[in-house]
Design goal:
Layout: H1 16-29, H2 33-43, H3 46-54, H4 59-68, H5 72-80, H6 86-92, H7 98-103, H8 108-112, H9 119-126, H10 131-139, H11 145-154, H12 158-166, H13 172-178
Helix pairs in contact: 1-2, 2-4, 4-6, 10-12, 11-12
Length: 187
């Protein structure tokens, strides 16, 4: 958009309050959901975002905000009043607080793709994980090497083994164990 700063650039300090209020007014009157969501994500305060959400029932705005917003309080608010696709977007957002992820009612493979799938959440996902969850964990860049080795050894599905072997953190010795016996030892 012409006249708006780059997405990552904050508003200049000398006109921040005036610019913020002007942007809030434009967000409230914009006909385009993405303009409202983009403006709310990058340049407005959490209280302003809450005001935009209160006046806007468009599920696309909520989904877009859930995937891009960095304010924990706004993400908590979005989790309490979900629209279609908001749970998946919250699970994929790296800024979603762990307490929100714990309360989400989404399929486990969406949580496995989350950047926050570590520690207790990782253990919970591994308990009784279905194929889609195991595959998502094997593809996830933050999955620890020992978990990758466990996934690769315990899963007979080739795509899970392939995803685990493609992961740079998987130890070479584990990769050799996964190869068919006809491949022979490394030279």
């Amino acid at each position: 958009m012409v006249g708006m700063p780059a997405r990552s650039a904050p508003w200049p300090v000398e006109k921040s309050e005036e610019a913020r209020l002007d942007l809030l007014a434009r967000c409230a009157t914009s006909r385009f959901a993405r303009v409202r969501a983009a403006a709310a994500t990058d340049w407005l305060l959490p209280a302003d975002i809450a005001a935009v959400l209160a006046g806007d029932r468009n599920p696309m705005v909520r989904r877009w905000l859930a995937g891009r917003c960095r304010h924990p309080d706004v993400l908590r608010q979005l989790a309490e009043q979900p629209a279609r696709g908001v749970g998946k977007a919250l699970a994929a957002n790296s800024c979603t607080p762990p307490d929100v992820l714990e309360r989400l009612h989404v399929k486990p493979h969406h949580l496995a793709r989350s950047w926050n799938a570590t520690g207790p959440m990782l253990a919970r996902l591994l308990d009784g994980a279905d194929h889609a969850t195991r595959l998502a964990l094997a593809e996830h860049c933050e999955t620890p090497p020992e978990t990758l080795a466990e996934l690769a050894r315990s899963d007979a599905e080739r795509d899970v083994i392939r995803a685990a072997c493609a992961h740079r953190a998987l130890p070479v010795a584990v990769m050799w164990d996964l190869l068919p016996s006809s491949a022979g030892p490394p030279l």
